[in-house]
TrEMBL record:
This is Putative glutamate--cysteine ligase 2. The keyword Methyltransferase does not apply. It catalyses: L-cysteine + L-glutamate + ATP = gamma-L-glutamyl-L-cysteine + ADP + phosphate + H(+). GO terms for biological process: modified amino acid biosynthetic process.
Length: 389
């Protein structure tokens, strides 16, 4: 049942990150990690760590956080703990949404009823799901308010994606995209931008119809870029690539949180962000995949109000000013302004390309250049890590 809108939502945050487990010697994916690896992780982290669809993956999730500092501490602890345990099994932890050179057809999916059902239903489409992501939950207790803000927040999804791009390589090839992950994920049903609903009741009617028809078991099978969580009273932002650098993850989570509160402030003042058609937002979604946050003649996202392409850095400044009151409220001004650092030094995708290009120009073979990319990713996954191997 919906609660009164008169009380401001808590806007707590929770962050889920998916990682690759790689063999320390080959830097290829660990196709069949020892069963005790996950057990050891759970002994240290409990329910904050879990398996993922592929055996070569592991997922971590923070507890409910009320500040960016709290989220940072938990992410640091989880990354460090899982990496340390992986090291005992001659593995390393790697944060990127695609592995630089791994092959999907040599992987194994995790055993269990849920994963076996997905594998049986989706067949080769899900066999290719060699991707990792980051999900940010924002606590909004009111059911109808979650649906209302979901429709408005969709506008900003490409802007968030552009800050996180970390999947330029696929099966050893440069895709030409800043993030190839969504090109893989979009082959699944019920993905992409969320639908627009007028109320929580309307949303539930649609979900319940699919459940009644036997198409899905519950709302967790809606894999939209932004969705109401089926387990908690949160909006879950799912469009982001997993960030190689932890500070980038904290930044994007903080911006997501502040955007939700900014939209709530508009509502409180009898205003709202304009809801644009999915056709338009989808165009920016593609541009974020293709160009990310990089500067250039053809780059940038469309400003729908001006009907023109605007450099991403300019749009970012507008967003920072929009949400500055919210960042001040939450005490995370430094975290949202870290986005400027991301723009200046580049996302993980840009840095991966730079490392690959530099290695080749210095005489490395394409394979050795990809190994250099993997080493960089491993070294930057865990804060304070000095060496990948």
């Amino acid at each position: 049942m919906a609660v009164s809108h008169s009380r401001e939502p808590g806007f707590s945050i929770g962050i889920e990150e998916e990682f690759w487990l790689v063999d320390r010697e080959s830097r290829d994916l660990a196709t069949d990690p020892a069963a005790d690896f996950l057990k050891d992780c759970k002994d240290e982290l409990g329910d904050q760590v879990s398996s993922e669809f592929m055996r070569c993956q592991v997922e971590t999730g923070t507890k409910v956080c009320n500040s960016a500092a709290e989220a940072r501490d938990q992410l640091t602890h989880m990354r460090s703990t899982v990496a340390d345990i992986a090291g005992r099994y001659d593995m390393a932890l790697l944060a990127a949404s695609t592995h630089p050179f791994a092959q999907w057809d040599s992987q194994k999916h995790t055993e269990g009823e849920r994963y076996s059902t997905i594998a049986r239903d989706l067949r080769t489409v899900v066999d290719r799901l060699l991707i990792c992501g980051m999900h940010v939950h924002v606590g909004i207790e009111d059911d109808d308010l979650r649906i209302e803000l979901m429709a408005q927040a969709s506008y900003f999804l490409p802007h968030l994606l552009a800050l996180t791009t970390s999947s330029p390589f696929w099966r050893g090839r440069d895709t030409g995209l800043q993030t190839f992950r969504l090109s893989v994920f979009d082959n699944l049903p019920r993905t992409g931008l969320p639908e627009v609903f007028g109320s929580w009741a309307e949303y539930r009617r649609h979900v319940d119809m699919l459940i009644q028809a036997g198409v899905i078991e519950d709302g967790t099978k809606l894999w939209w870029d932004l969705r109401p969580s089926d387990r908690w009273p949160t909006l879950e932002m799912r469009i982001a690539d997993v960030c190689t650098d932890l500070e980038d993850a904290v930044c994007v989570a903080s911006i997501t949180r502040c955007l939700m509160r900014m939209l709530y402030r508009l509502r409180r003042n009898n205003q709202r962000w304009r809801i644009y058609s999915n056709m338009l937002v989808r165009e920016n979604r593609w541009r974020a995949c293709r160009y990310g946050s990089d500067a250039g003649d053809k780059t940038g996202l469309i400003d729908f109000g001006r009907a023109e392409i605007v450099p991403y850095a300019d749009l970012l400044e507008e967003i920072i000013e929009l949400i500055r009151p919210d960042a001040e409220h939450f005490g995370c001004v430094a975290e949202i302004e870290h986005a400027r650092t991301i723009i200046k030094r580049g996302t993980s995708a840009r840095r991966q390309r730079e490392i690959y290009t530099d290695a080749v120009e210095n005489g490395a073979s394409p394979r050795d250049a990809l190994l250099a990319v993997a080493d960089h990713l491993i070294a930057h996954t865990v804060p304070g890590e000095k060496s990948a191997v």
